[in-house]
Design a protein that fits this description.
Elements (H helix, E strand, L loop, with lengths): L11 E4 L2 E4 L4 H12 L3 H20 L4 E3 L3 E8 L3 E4 L4 E4 L3 E8 L6
Antiparallel strand pairs: 1-2, 3-4, 4-7, 5-6
Length: about 110
């Protein structure tokens, strides 16, 4: 069995000896929080939505987010790239891009 998957969890399927974990969605997270912590599913969903809203606002503001032992999120701006349209032989600069970067931190590392 995959670590973290309970017996009644439909997110794991077995193929011979290989077990494949399904994508973790907000709905599955909410159900798991509700089951494990005693919240109602609606309360767990609201909790996840609020957490993601806070994270989104911080990233838009340019702040980094660090969850110790899990990962670090940040958004960085990249310089505009130079583009070329071969059909009309025109060149120009594209717009400035913003990349989302997620770095996994080793367990126990702040």
């Amino acid at each position: 069995m995959v670590v973290g998957a309970s017996q009644g969890d439909n997110s794991v399927k077995e193929f011979g000896k290989l077990e494949v974990s399904m994508t973790l969605t907000k709905a599955r997270m909410a159900q798991r929080i509700a089951d494990d912590c005693g919240f109602l599913k609606g309360e767990a969903t609201e909790l996840i939505e609020k957490l993601l809203e806070i994270m989104k606002k911080k990233l838009i503001a340019g702040d980094d987010i660090v969850v110790s032992g899990f990962g670090k999120w940040r958004v960085r701006s990249k310089r505009p790239r130079r583009g070329r349209n071969p059909q009309v032989q025109a060149t120009g600069n594209g717009e400035c891009k913003r990349d989302r970067i997620i770095k996994k931190t080793p367990a126990g590392t702040p």
